[in-house]
């Protein structure tokens, strides 16, 4: 097996992912060095527990190692963020299940008075509510821009760098994404409908 040597045309993420798919651990290391920093920063914005963030980051790259062959083009950064976001949701669900089991196991059945934060409620709505359903109906490239700029709070420049597209394209896609999201929300929950 040839080890990945990041030179010339092989410097792009697609080449790294192809090498990882063939079992090249060095290529995975290069990919990790290139993307782990910003992934860690974005995960930290969504989760205050540093241990969970570290576990999710590790799980993300384990998933990349196992499924690099499934990457079908497009920006690797967006693909990595989708994996990381799903791993974070999975980790939160597992924590919630463990907490519920722990509560059931307590002998003094006092209810916990911990309410979810506003951010957690918004993120749950994005994942499971009408907004999440509407987001799933718009095109992936528009959804990526919307998640990066609105959900993650990245600037246009940061989003452009993350997705590997020009800043003007970010602005155009964000405008289109908002328009399409409004249309989809109108289809899912029309004004005047039942709550």
Automatic annotation (TrEMBL):
> Keywords for this entry?
Sigma factor, Transcription, Transcription regulation
Query: What is any Pfam family matched here?
Result: Sigma70_r2
In this chain the RNA polymerase sigma factor 70 region 4 type domain maps to 131-181
Which domain of life does this protein belong to?
Bacteria
Q: Does the keyword Transcription regulation apply?
A: yes
Q: Which residues form the RNA polymerase sigma-70 region domain?
A: 31-97
Keyword set includes Transcription: yes
PANTHER family of this UniProt entry? RNA POLYMERASE ECF-TYPE SIGMA FACTO (PTHR43133), RNA POLYMERASE SIGMA-70 FACTOR ECF SUBFAMILY (PTHR43133:SF46)
Q: Which family is this protein grouped under?
A: Belongs to the sigma-70 factor family. ECF subfamily.
| Record's protein name | RNA polymerase sigma factor
């Amino acid at each position: 097996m040839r080890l990945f040597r990041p030179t010339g045309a092989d410097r792009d993420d697609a080449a790294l992912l192809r090498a990882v798919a063939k079992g090249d651990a060095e290529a995975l290391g290069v990919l990790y060095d290139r993307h782990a920093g910003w992934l860690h920063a974005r995960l930290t914005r969504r989760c205050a527990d540093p241990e969970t963030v570290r576990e999710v980051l590790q799980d993300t790259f384990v998933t990349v190692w196992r499924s690099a062959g499934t990457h079908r083009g497009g920006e690797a950064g967006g693909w990595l963020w989708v994996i990381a976001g799903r791993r974070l949701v999975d980790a939160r669900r597992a924590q919630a299940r463990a907490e519920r089991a722990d509560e059931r196991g307590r002998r003094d059945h006092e209810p916990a008075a911990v309410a979810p934060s506003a951010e957690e409620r918004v993120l749950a709505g994005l994942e499971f509510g009408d907004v999440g359903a509407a987001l799933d109906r718009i095109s992936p490239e528009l959804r990526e821009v919307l998640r990066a700029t609105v959900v993650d709070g990245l600037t246009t420049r940061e989003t452009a760098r993350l997705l590997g597209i020009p800043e003007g394209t970010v602005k155009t896609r964000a405008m289109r994404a908002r328009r399409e999201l409004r249309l989809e929300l109108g289809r899912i929950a029309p004004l005047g409908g039942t709550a």
